[in-house]
Design goal:
Arc Repressor Mutant, subunit A, 9 helices, Rna Polymerase Sigma Factor, Chain: A
Length: 182
Amino acid sequence: MHDEHELIRRAQEYDPAAFGEIYERYYIGVYKYVYYRIGDQTAAEDMTMEVFLKAMEAIDGFTFRGIPFSAWLYRIASNLVVDFFRRQPVQPSLSLEEKLVANTEHPLHSLDVQFSHQALREALADLTDEQQQVIILKFVDGLSNIEVAQVLGKTEGAVKSLQHRALAALGRVLGEQGEATA
């Protein structure tokens, strides 16, 4: 934690190396969070860059209040996701064939990954916004219950309850999807 405090202090002094380290340390987690919320790779990449730009612009105003720096970044990302859906209620999407052509990996591996990501995104779409965030932060980004609670501004007990309801709903949705394909 002390290392994080030092890193943020350096960033607040406009040390370019500190900004680079922040980006390297948190990019993957923020990107995965955004991607699983919006389901569009290009838009997620753009939005993730916007998160770091906004963080860099507002770093002077950041103060430690017992909440990790990553929670601040996830809140910025969450606000951008909300704005994204307000601006674009209907997302254009590529057909499966177009996505596969753009992918340079082995086609069978690409299909497996595409279907599993698609199934997860479709199942997540049936959850409430808060349940989606808990599942993504906890199981995709690997945050602890305490960290998820800090990101969402909830108690750890509320996060556990949301997680329980979300997992039950996901189980029902994924079970129904499995039955439909069988």
